[in-house]
Structures are given as structure tokens and as C-alpha cells.
Design a protein that fits this description.
With about 325 residues, this protein is mainly alpha-helical. The chain has 14 helices and 4 strands. This is Amino acid/amide ABC transporter membrane protein 2, HAAT family.
Length: about 325
């Protein structure tokens, strides 16, 4: 069985479970979109070892480009998302090429500076971005293929489109992370000097990681604008980068399914806690601290630990019963 076929039923089951179990279709849609965003962050942090606060740049850019291309160019939503993805990849290549010139804390500070710059540009160009008010009334222009119109004009249709995107993007990233490229990124993360000595172009691999991450995040940002029918300025704020990093770290950066758990935790638990206490981010910070100290692999490692414990317990019980 190929790698994609092995994971495809699991991803479809996740999409169906989110639709059936979560209290609203809007919440389920948001979980899948942010799971894609967390996956884009995990490529940088979990595989390339790059702690970047620049994810909001690509998220906001994707939202603006997908919205503007439909408003001013009149393209359909698929073309708008493809344009947003290309824009995200291009900007990610530029940001990555500049940021990787420094390492450690200096790299982190550069990504912070680029995010602040992107926010300032978005705020200033209010005739394009709407400034503080954001872009309002973002359409979902239908696709016309050989006379057949494909529209995502209802919550159910839009969720189906997001679920398909979720499954396809995750299958693609599973293939990439298990390829030679993914293994090389892990080698660079573990020992950059050794990877350089073996002849790998470390800077080129890091820029490619930025491109993959930026394109995925921009695509998800475009979907988020279509979901809200609105592209807010908050998409480009530093706090959005922080939320994306928290999702990736809490879920587990070394496993693609950690992105799903991180998104589910931040979106659903955040929605529940915010209904009871307006300062719920204080609790989230405490949970993040506990995760870093006691669950280095994130929630996904804890889940695997529970499964392993249960399998050993029931396995030993069945063995004793047979004997």
C-alpha cells in the first residue's frame, strides 16, 4: 500500500468527524483551515528547525490577494486561491532568502521585523487592504467549467471544499516530509555543519522550506477570507504568528497529525474558554509552558503514549488469559 493510500482514510475520517462532532459547521471549517496553517508552520519549525514569527505575513497576504483578485479581476475562487498561493511562495522566497542570512535569535528578530513591516504596509495601503476596517464583502466567485457552474455559496459546500483541500494538502505534505527533501531538512535541523560537510546546500533547502510553508499558509489565508467574506487587518498582526506557532508547538511539530491536534485545541478549547473568561489566553500560556516542559513532542506524543499504554495493558491481559 502506498504512503498516500495509507493516510487517506485517516484524513477523510478526521474531516468527517469534525463535521459531525463539533457543535457548528463554522467551527469545523475553522479547525481544518488552521490545521493547514499549523502544518505550514511545522515544516519550518519541526523539519527545518526555524523558529519563525513571519507566518502572519503569508497568512495575511493570501487573504488579501485572494480577495482582491476576485473583487478587481473578477476571477473565480479557485484562480484567486492559486494566485494567492503563488504570491505567498514568491514573498516567502524573498523573506526566507533574507532571514536565513542570520541564525538563532537574530533570525527570529528578522522574522519579527518583517511581520511588523508587513503590518505597517497593510495598514498604510488602506485603499487596497481597507486599513483598520479590512476588506469587506469578499465574494466567492463561482467556477464555470464547460458550462457547469461550481459554487461554494453555502456553508456545507464551502466545508466540503475546505475538507478536500485539507486532505490533498496533507497527503502532499506527507509525501514531501517522507521524501529525500524532508529527510535532508531533518538532517540540517539536527546537525547543520555535518549536512554542509556532506555537500548539501543548506541555505537552498531552508529557502525551499520557506517557499513550501509560505505557499501553504497563503492558500489557507485565502480560504479564511472566503470563509469570513472578510479579510481583516488582524491576519497580519504579530499575535497571529504567535497563535500559529502555539498551534504547531502544542500539537507537535514532528508529526503532521500534530497540526490537527494543535488547531483543534486552540480553536475549540479557545472558543470554549473565551465564553467563560475573557483572559483565557492566560490559561493557554500555562498549557504551553506545561507542554514544553513535560510533553516535548506535543499533544500527538501524549496521544501516542496513551495508545501504547493501552495496547500494552490489554495485550498483557489477553496473554495472561490465554495462558
Amino acid at each position: 500500500m502506498s504512503l498516500e493510500l495509507k493516510h487517506c482514510p485517516i484524513l477523510i475520517a478526521i474531516a468527517l468527524a469534525a463535521f459531525l462532532v463539533l457543535p457548528s459547521i463554522s467551527l469545523a471549517t475553522e479547525v481544518l483551515i488552521f490545521a493547514i496553517i499549523a502544518l505550514g508552520c511545522s515544516i519550518l519549525l519541526g523539519y527545518a528547525g526555524l523558529l519563525s514569527f513571519g507566518q502572519a505575513i503569508f497568512f495575511g497576504l493570501g487573504a488579501y490577494v485572494a480577495s482582491l483578485s476576485q473583487i478587481h479581476l473578477g476571477v473565480n475562487f479557485l484562480v484567486g486561491l492559486l494566485i494567492a498561493t503563488a504570491a505567498g511562495a514568491t514573498v516567502a522566497a524573498l523573506v526566507g532568502a533574507l532571514a536565513i542570512r542570520r541564525q538563532g535569535i537574530y533570525f527570529v528578530m528578522l522574522t519579527l521585523a518583517f511581520t511588523q513591516l508587513a503590518f505597517f504596509v497593510s495598514y498604510t495601503l488602506d485603499e487596497w487592504t481597507g486599513g483598520d476596517n479590512g476588506l469587506l464583502d469578499v465574494p466567492r466567485n463561482s467556477v464555470d467549467i464547460f458550462g457547469f457552474e461550481i459554487a461554494i455559496d453555502s456553508s456545507e459546500k464551502f466545508y466540503a471544499f475546505v475538507a478536500i483541500s485539507f486532505v490533498l494538502i496533507f497527503l502532499g505534505m506527507i509525501r514531501i516530509t517522507h521524501s529525500q527533501f524532508g529527510r535532508t531538512l531533518l538532517a540540517i535541523k539536527q546537525n547543520e555543519e555535518r549536512a554542509t560537510a556532506l555537500g548539501y546546500s543548506v541555505k537552498w533547502y531552508k529557502v525551499l522550506a520557506f517557499i513550501f510553508s509560505g505557499s501553504i499558509t497563503a492558500y489557507a489565508g485565502g480560504m479564511y477570507a472566503l470563509f469570513l467574506n472578510f479579510a481583516p487587518l488582524s491576519n497580519v498582526e504579530l499575535i497571529m504568528s504567535e497563535h500559529i506557532l502555539i498551534m504547531a508547538i502544542i500539537g507537535g511539530t514532528g508529526n503532521v497529525y500534530g497540526a490537527v491536534l494543535g488547531s483543534l485545541f486552540l480553536v475549540v478549547v479557545g472558543d470554549m474558554l473565551s465564553a467563560f473568561w475573557e483572559r483565557w489566553l492566560f490559561l493557554l500560556g500555562g498549557i504551553l509552558i506545561l507542554t514544553v516542559f513535560y510533553m516535548r513532542g506535543g499533544l500527538i506524543s501524549g496521544l501516542y503514549g496513551v495508545f501504547e499504554f493501552l495496547s500494552q495493558k490489554f495485550g498483557s491481559a489477553s496473554t495472561q488469559k490465554e495462558s
